[in-house]
Every structure is written in structure tokens, then in C-alpha cells.
Amino acid sequence: MATRMGNKTRQAILEAAREAFASKSYAEVSMEDIAKIAHVKKPLIYYYFPSKEDLFKEAWDEAFRDLEDKVFGPKEEEGKYVRKVKQFLRAYIDFLRNDRKSLRLIEREKNKFYSEKSKNWQYMKKRYDVFVQQVADVIASETGNSSPEFARAITDIVGSSALLPEGQMSPKTLELIIIKGLKP
Amino acid sequence: MATRMGNKTRQAILEAAREAFASKSYAEVSMEDIAKIAHVKKPLIYYYFPSKEDLFKEAWDEAFRDLEDKVFGPKEEEGKYVRKVKQFLRAYIDFLRNDRKSLRLIEREKNKFYSEKSKNWQYMKKRYDVFVQQVADVIASETGNSSPEFARAITDIVGSSALLPEGQMSPKTLELIIIKGLKP
DNA sequence: TTTTTGATTTACCGATCGGTAAAATAATAT
DNA sequence: ATATTATTTTACCGATCGGTAAATCAAAAA
Predict the structure, then answer these.
(1) Do A184 and B180 touch (CB under 8 A)?
(2) Interface of A with B in 130-149 (CB under 8 A)
(3) Which residues make Cβ contacts (< 8 Å) with residue B17, sequence separation at least 6?
(4) Residue A180 φ/ψ region, left for φ over 0, alpha for ψ in the -120 to 50 degree band, beta for the rest
(5) How many CB atoms lie within 10 A of CB B78?
(6) Where are chain A's structural domains?
(7) Minimum Cα–Cα distance from A147: chain B residue
(8) Considering only the top CATH level, what class is A52-182?
(9) What pLDDT score was predicted for residue B79?
(10) For position A5, what pLDDT does the model report?
């Protein structure tokens, strides 16, 4: 009854998918690619996931789970005099440094749902929108006025940086740019 | 000797390609798609262009030609007391409003050349890098210090906005965000 | 008018795509 | 040991991909 070996295989496939979708776009990644990374034959993927789209949706979900956990989760400087926005920004940029994979996956397909109208893609759009709204809320909690447009601009800049080769956009500079936008 | 009807057909195909590559990614666009838009059969494309990659390269070139003409070309407020950076920014955002197609094409594939090492893609990378450098120069000509990273951030933000549905990111807000980054 | 040349289409190729059926394997339950 | 169930593989499918060869059509040259 309780699944046997399957759980580990399923997780391995999902992990392989996350890696693949972080390195190439959804359209460019083939199920064969994912199978190879997971050291598995292609049809086995379909034993655990109904379709490429569903597999991507789960990868998308896990990426956002990781992102939101680290960025909105408990901070080390909790309760200190450090501003909430500063904490958020630090965590966001740390995430960019340490978990580029998730941000890359998101960045590659964050515009896809403007053309794809299927249920899965609309679900992913919602997940993305909610994240941007949460960012807007953090900013609004201090500056008083935070347009969703500004929150979107921030996530776009961080996202773009994630697709650059490492070292191309220094986290320090990135932080500075965003803080300047926050100020007046 | 002087080409007959061909020129117009060639241009129609190239125009169709620009439209197609602006609406979907390189990998998602098929030669069949382009043929349909151009009201032409697929093999005719290969009469004028050696490959999909070469066709895309030409579309890429035209997009940058249009962009650079409008953004670095002669300005209406030339010679006025209006700062050069302001003029550039105005032109850039006007271009975003009026010629979304070019910016979309660029934005969709601006990271492709980090994985594709072919001659064509390296050429396109260079073309993109030159543009960013020109932006950096404009900024440096007034603020004195302009990191290429900041120029890149600006083009990333404008590019991201281009892929959003119209009206999602107001040009005014966008301008404001960039100006704030420019200030101190 | 006939011939030549440029332009366009029809018919097709091998490779790869996402996905399925069914057989083979491996682990558990009886 | 045997039957059952979960897991994995082999073999394949139709559709679509980028691209090619050759036939057809249309316009200019002779």
C-alpha cells in the first residue's frame, strides 16, 4: 500500500526536470533530456507524471515553494531594528546567489501564460502573480505606497540577473539599484 | 540581372519572421508559422534564407537597426537644454510604446547565446552587447560613472516591460523608476 | 515565338517530438 | 513457492520539425 521505491524515483525525476527547465526553455527541453538527467527511461516519467505540462507545473510549484520559504520565511535578523524591506531584499538576493536554479526556471517561462490559456498555465500565472503581490505588500508595509508595477519591476530585474552568467551582475550593485528605487 | 519580384517577397518573409519571433520564442516558432504569416509556402523561405537560424539573425539585425535608429538617432529636442540622458530615455520609452515588436523579439532570445555557441548566435550576442555599451556610454556622458551593470539593468527592465501585455506597466512609472536609479 | 532564367510549389526525407501499449522485472503478500 | 502488485523497460505510434529535390509556373531575353 505505502509506496515502495517509487517516491524516490519520482523525486529524482522532478529534480531532473527542475534542472533541465532551469537550463533551457520549456519548449527546448525534451522528455528525453529529463530522462537522461534522472538516469531513467523516458516512459517511466509518464508513470509518475501525466504529461510534460504537468511535470513542469510541479517543478514550477517547487521553485516557488523554495523561493517563498527563503524570501518571506523567518529571517535571521528577525525583531531587530532592521527594516522589513531590507530583510526581504537581503533574503531575495541571497536566494539569487545560492539557488539560481529556481529563479532561472521561473524567469524562462514567466511570460508564457500570456499566450497559453490551459488550466495548468493559468494556475502558474496565478502563482506568479501572488508572489509579485506579496513583494508589493512588503514594500507597501513601509513606504506606504507601493505600486504593483514597482514590485514587478523588482522581480523582473532580479529574474533577469538570474539568467546572466554568474558574476555578470554583482549582488551588491543589484541591491543598490533596487534600494535607490525604493528611497524617495 | 536586377532581381525581379524577389525583393518584395524576401522582405515580406522577413517581416513575417519578425512578427512570429516577437510573439513566440525561437524554438516555438516553426518555419511553417512564418510561411503562413507571409502567405507563402515553406520551401520558398529557403529560396531566400539558408536556414531558420540565418533568418532569425536577419530579423534580429533589423530589430536592432530600428531600435538604435530611434534611440540613438537625431532627437527632436536636439540642442535644447534637455539633458542627453533624458532625451535617450524618452526615445527608449517611446520606442517601447510604438514598436513593441522589435523589443519583444530581442527580449525573448537575449539569453540564448549563453548556451548557443554557433557563429550566428555569437554575432547576435555581440550586437546586443554593443547596444548595452552604448546605453552605458550615454549614461556615463553625464553622470560620470556608469557601470555596464546599471546599463544592463535598464535594458532588462525595459525589455521585460515589452513582454507584458500592453498597459500592464505604464511608461510613466517605468521612466520614473529608471530616473530614480539614475539620480544620486 | 521560343528559350532562358527567376520564382514558387508539390512531394518528400530523416530526425525528433510527446505520448502509449505491452512486455519484462522486481518486490511484497499469500 | 506462488500469486499479486508495483516498477521499469522495450518497442512503437502519429505528428511535426528543419530542410531538400525536382517539377511547375511566370516573366524576361533571344
Answers:
(1) yes
(2) 147, 149
(3) B29, B34, B55, B56, B58, B59
(4) alpha
(5) 9
(6) 52-182
(7) B173
(8) mainly alpha
(9) 64
(10) 63
Query: Residue B27 — φ and ψ, nearest 5°?
Result: -70, -30
CB–CB contact A150 B177 (8 Å): yes
Of A28, A152, A180, the CB nearest to B169: A152
Q: What is the spatial distance between Cα B66 and Cα B62, in angstroms, rounded to a whole number?
A: 6
How does pLDDT run across A137-176, given as a tens digit for each residue?
999 988 877 789 999 999 999 999 999 999 999 999 999 9
ipTM reported for the complex surpasses 0.85: yes
Name the grid cell of B150. 546599471
CA distance B153 to chain A (A): 6
Strand D positions closer than 7 A to protein CB: 6-11, 16-22, 27-28
Compute the distance between CA of residue B173 and CA of residue B160 in angstroms, rounded to an integer: 14
Asked if A137 contacts A146 with a C-beta cutoff of 8 angstroms, the reply is yes
Q: How far apart are CA B143 and CA B136, in angstroms?
A: 10
Take residue B134 and report the three cell numbers written for it: 552604448
Residue of chain B with shortest Cα separation from A169 = B149
Residues ≥6 apart with Cβ < 8 Å to A143: A85, A182
Ordered DSSP codes for B3-50? --SHHHHHHHHHHHHHHHHHHS-TTT--HHHHHHHTTS-HHHHHHH-S
Calculate the CA dihedral of residues A69, A72, A167, B161 and round it to 10 degrees. Answer: 110
